[in-house]
Amino acid sequence: MKRVLTLLAAVLFSLPVAAAELGDDGLHKTDWMRDTFKDLREDLEDANAEGKRLMVMIEQRGCIYCTKMHEEVFPRPEIADFIRENFFVVQLNLHGDLEVIDFDGESLSEKQAARKWGLLFTPSILFLPEEVAEDQTAAQAAVAMMPGAFGPGTTLDLLTWVQEKRYALDTEEDFQRYHARRIAEREAEKSQ
């Protein structure tokens, strides 16, 4: 009986929670996204005040890869909870017209910001440090960028790598080596 309950608990905890709903702009909306004035300097201050990292997600209506992330990856409890606890998430629309104020003070539309930052694909996620120089853009300041849709393991590893500031450590372990190590560790845990 104990084995059945353990198996049932494992299955239940591995199931994703409800996927995000679509907003009027056609983008997926989650409870961990923030509705801000999209002044990135203010968003960074708010993230820092909460002890979180600023994460800027660029998505677009009809994006099959955004849908994949919102239906298969982000709803997983371990990922949704990690984002909720550690990140201040601001969503931008690749083709949107809402005003964004970049870290360098330039005011532009969402689509102009995406072009300025050289973002062509969605989803693209920029991870920002706690401090950004006044003359830097979001793309220049980003400590990492997630260009596209990834599986749950890669996504959680990148979120963890950023949250733990592993990009700033003086080691030879860049993200790819960190991710490879984490894959090997997970495989070793499964075989035990």
UniProtKB/TrEMBL annotation:
Entry keyword Acetylation: no
Name of one Pfam family that matches: Thioredoxin_2
Residues annotated as domain Thioredoxin-like fold: 48-131
Residues in coiled coil: none
InterPro entries, per database record: SoxW, Thioredoxin-like_fold, Thioredoxin-like_sf
Keywords per UniProt: Signal
Segment forming the signal sequence: 1-19
SUPFAM superfamilies for the chain: Thioredoxin-like
Protein name as annotated: Thioredoxin-like domain protein
